[in-house]
Design a protein that fits this description.
By secondary structure, the chain is mostly helical. The protein has one domain. The protein has six helices and no strands. Helix 4 packs antiparallel against helix 6 (135-149). The two termini are 28 Å apart.
C-alpha cells in the first residue's frame, strides 16, 4: 500500500510541488495581511460603519483564503514529504516542520483575535498587532532557509 502511495507521490511530484507552492503563497499572503488589518481595525470606533466593514473583510480573508490555503499547504506538503521520504532527511526537515507547526498555531491565534474583533472585545493595542505582524515573516524565513540550505543534514 505504502509503495503504491510513494509511487503516486513521486510520479506527480511536480504537480504536488506546484500546488504546495500556490497554497503556501496564498497562506502567507493572508498571514501577512490579517494582522495588518487588525492594526487598522484598532483605530476604528466600535460599531462604526468602517469597523463593521473591517469585520467582514477579516472574516472573508480567514474563511475564503487563509483557512483553505493552510489546509492545502499541509495536504500537499505532507504528500511531498512522504513521496520524497523527507522524514529521514535530517535535522533541517524537523526544524522546518516545527516552524510550520508554530505558524499553524499563530494561524489559530489570528482566528481567535478575529473572533474577538467580531464581538468588539479586542483587548490589544495597535502596537501589539504591529509586533505580531512580524511573526509570519520570521517563521517564513526559517522555513525557506531550511528547505533551500538544508543545514543539519
Amino acid at each position: 500500500m505504502f509503495d503504491i502511495l510513494a509511487e503516486f507521490f513521486q510520479e506527480y511530484y511536480y504537480w504536488l510541488l506546484a500546488l504546495h507552492i500556490i497554497s503556501v503563497i496564498s497562506w502567507m499572503a493572508g498571514m501577512f495581511y490579517l494582522p495588518r488589518l487588525f492594526v487598522y481595525h484598532t483605530r476604528l470606533e466600535i460599531g462604526s460603519e468602517a469597523s463593521e466593514m473591517f469585520k467582514e473583510m477579516e472574516r472573508k480573508l480567514m474563511r475564503i483564503i487563509i483557512n483553505p490555503a493552510m489546509s492545502g499547504t499541509w495536504i500537499f506538503g505532507l504528500a511531498l514529504s512522504f513521496g520524497q521520504d523527507s522524514w529521514h532527511a535530517g535535522g533541517w526537515f524537523y526544524i522546518k516542520i516545527a516552524a510550520v507547526l508554530i505558524l499553524s498555531g499563530f494561524h489559530g491565534y489570528l482566528s481567535k483575535w478575529r473572533k474577538l474583533f467580531e464581538r468588539d472585545k479586542n483587548p490589544h493595542p495597535e502596537r501589539y498587532f504591529r509586533l505580531m505582524n512580524e511573526v509570519p515573516t520570521i517563521l517564513m524565513m526559517i522555513i525557506v532557509f531550511m528547505v533551500f540550505l538544508k543545514p543539519f543534514s
